[in-house]
Amino acid sequence: MDRHSKQHPHGPVEPGASFIYDPEVTVIEPPEHITAIPEGDVSASYATFLKLENAYAWTLSNGLALFSIALAVLMFVQVILRYGFNSPFVGIEEMALLFGAWVYFPAMAYVTRQGEHIHGGILTLVVKNRTAVQTVRLIMTVLSILACAVFGYFALKYAFFEIEKGRLSSYLRWPKGIWSFSLVIGFGGTFLALLMQALNQYIDIQKLRKGDTPQC
Question: pTM for this structure?
């Protein structure tokens, strides 16, 4: 049977539409989550910055894909060496941690930049004013910026500590700073994305205050 799914159909549901849909709790949808990338018009100087930031995001995205593929290939080769030739690669744990760290922490920055992390929805069930909702979200973003700054500071301090001490990995004898700097990139990129997000949230709040503030 041919069944067509439609999100949020308004009642009465038109003939032929599926009844499989997310129910509408309110007439007006809650305000969209504001991300680091502005959707409206920006100034020429900020547009130039966004071009540079977009190039950085492209590099970050492709780097994540590269390290993810490298980690998968590493696991495959290790299985072949271990069970096919009975000669496992002893440094695989260090390389796996290296590739994993350069996937996990930079991905934190990229996901924050894209606005694809997990959001809670309880706020919009309690607070109905759109301006108030966006204000609370801005406060949470500012708190996240502060937390990211603290963790980023200690990550940078730890990375330089390992470089200054000349610490090397056990098997590969690679500088441990290579592992540690994934933390710096992750927290640094997240800090930048949150700053941009906070700016966009502030602009959105100003627009809501100047115009109507419908209830959620």
Answer: 0.76
